[in-house]
Every structure is written in structure tokens, then in C-alpha cells.
Amino acid sequence: MKHRTKFTKTAAFTLIFALVLSLFPTAVLAENVSVISAEASVQTTNDGRLSNYNASEEGYVWNEESKVLTITQSTEDYTTSTYKNRPWQQYAATAEKIVIDNPDAYIGNYAFYNFSSVINLEINNCGDIGKYAFQNCLKLENVTIKNCGNIGSYAFGNFMYLSGWGVDESIKTVVIENCGEIGDYAFGALPALESVRIDNCTTIKTGAFTRCSALKSLSIANCNTIEDSAFDYSTSLTSFYLNGCESIGSGILNGSSVESIELENCSTIGDYAFQNCHSLKTLTLTDWNHWKLFFWRL
Fold first, then answer.
1. Tell me, what DSSP letter sits at residue 105?
2. What values do phi and psi take at 151, rounded to 5?
3. What percent of the chain has pLDDT over 90?
4. CA 236 centroid distance within chain
5. 186: which residues sit within 8 A by CB, 6+ positions away?
6. What φ, ψ does residue 20 adopt, rounded to 5°?
7. Is residue 288 within 8 Å of residue 263, measured between CB atoms?
8. Where would you tag: which of 25, 123, 133, 153 has the fewest CB atoms within 10 A of its CB?
9. Distance between terminal CA atoms of the chain?
10. Pairing mode, if any, of strands 97-101 and 68-71?
């Protein structure tokens, strides 16, 4: 009899608890996904990327299993004093991949500065990328940008190395399919960078890829302007291919070890463009308009 009474009380409690729960809306989320908004509706693919999402109020989604941080909205600008106030700061030491896929999203200054474990960056669509946005990401190896606005000064560049502090960064490959302006020293002084491919951009600013001592492969197409010293001191570079450029500035390959240069559809080649390229053996020019002392001091 006692056992029967105990069962009845348990059943009654369970029924009441179920009725209480039914009064509140619930949402079922994957166990490994953290969404920072009660209003967000999120679905993820197997690799942690977003599919058919509504951006959260905090502007990001975290996938614990794949260690992927997906940015869904514009970020604020930060400084070296305020970057630790970022909403996603708790993942700065654990995120291994960052994905951005919002054509209206602005990536602010220092937005991902000091993300110490990120290896891959995938930007499918975004607006402008601010200064120092991905600087000091010491394990970052692969940067893939399908479409973005302007890339700010020192966005990836090793500012400490340029300042003589000697901190190494690990970026090995950069692929940019379409972008606006690549800012001053945006990828400057990256000692592990081996391959750069740029399919379409407006301007490559001064020193954008300066002093990338491991750079071996460099291919650029459809670029309006390459400014002075953009790729100078690429001491491992053996070949340079450029197809479609309005203006090439001074000393863009100054001091590099390039052996062959092929230029197609280029309008203006500036003074001393290939100065101190002592290893140069072959220079091929196709469909070009005019030049100014570009061969001086080869």
C-alpha cells in the first residue's frame, strides 16, 4: 500500500511538471552549438558553417565541436586597450576557424586581434575589413577571401616584425578572388607566406606584401594600380605573373630574387619597378602601352 501511494505521488508530480513546461516556448538546438540570442534561428552544416540563419544580437555563432566561430553581423572598432571587450573574446584562445558570410558586415579594427589558435579564415562575403583586424593571429595559416570591400592597413601584417620586435606569424597562403583596396602593409612582413593569388582588386597599396621572405608564388589579375614597394624584398620569389594592370609603381619587386616576370595588358610601368632584381633572367611583355625606365638597375 505504501509503495502504491509513493507511485501515485510521483506520477502526479510528473504530470504537473509537464503541464508547467508546456506553458513556455522551447527551442531544440544541437548540443554542440552555442547561440548568443534567444531570438536567433540557426542551422549549421557539418563543418560548422551557417545555413539559413537569422543573425543573433551579439552577431556570432559558436560551434564547440568544430571550433568554428561564424560572424553574422558587423563588428565594432576596438583598440589595443578595448579588444578584450569583444563579445566573442571567450573564444580567442580556442577558435580554430573563422567564417564570415554577410556582404553588409563590416569587420572592425582589432576585431580578431590576438586570436591565438585560429588556423583558417574563410570570408565568403563581407564589407570593409578594418586596420589590425587579424593581426597577431600567430597560428593562422590560410586566408581565403571570395569577396570583400577594402582591406585596411596592417589587417594581417606583422607590425611587430616591421617594428623590429621579430615576432613570427604563420600565414602560408593568401587567396583573394575579389576585393577593393588592399591597404598599406596589409600583409607585410609575414615570414611564412609562400603563395599569393589575387584575381581582382582595385589597388594594392604601398608595402602591402613587403618583406615576405618565403614568398615563392605570386599571381595577380585585373588590378588597377600596384603602388610602390608592394612586393619588395621577396627574397624567395622566383616568378611573377601579372595580367591586367593600369599602373605599376616604383620598386614593386625591389631586392627580390625573381627570375622570370610576365606582364600582360599593363599600361604604365613606373620608375625602378624591378630595381635590384639581380636574378632576373626572363622578362615577357604582352599588350602593354608605355613605360618609364622600368628596366633600370635590373
1. -
2. -105, 120
3. 66
4. 23
5. 151, 152, 153, 154, 155, 156, 157, 205, 208, 209
6. -65, -45
7. yes
8. 25
9. 103
10. parallel
- Tell me the per-residue pLDDT of 100-124, one tens digit each, with 9 for 90 and over: 999 999 999 999 999 999 999 999 9
Residue with cell 579564415: 121
pLDDT digits (tens, 9 = 90+) for 125-163: 999 999 999 999 999 999 999 999 999 999 999 866 555
3-class state of residue 5 by DSSP: helix
Rounded Cα–Cα distance for residues 49 and 268 (Å): 43
Q: Is the pLDDT of residue 10 over 50?
A: no
Segment (H or E) for 225: strand 217-226
- Phi, psi of 135, deg, nearest 5: -75, 150
What are the backbone dihedrals phi and psi of residue 13, each rounded to the nearest 5 degrees, phi first? -60, -45
* Residues 99 and 124: beta-carbon distance below 8 Å: yes
Question: Which three three-digit cell numbers place residue 281?
Answer: 633572367
CB 127 within 8 A of CB 150: no
Q: Are 259 and 238 a contacting pair, CB within 8 Å?
A: yes
Instruction: Go through the chain and tell me how many residues it has.
Output: 298
**C-alpha cell of residue 226:** 600596384
Q: Are 34 and 64 in contact (CB under 8 A)?
A: yes
Average pLDDT for the chain = 82
Q: pLDDT tens, 176-231?
A: 999 999 999 999 999 999 999 999 999 999 999 999 999 999 999 999 999 999 99
pLDDT category of residue 5 using cuts at 50, 70 and 90: very low
The DSSP string of 9-72 is: HHHHHHHHHHHHHTTS------TTEEES-TT----B-TTS-B-S----TTSEEEETTTTEEEE-
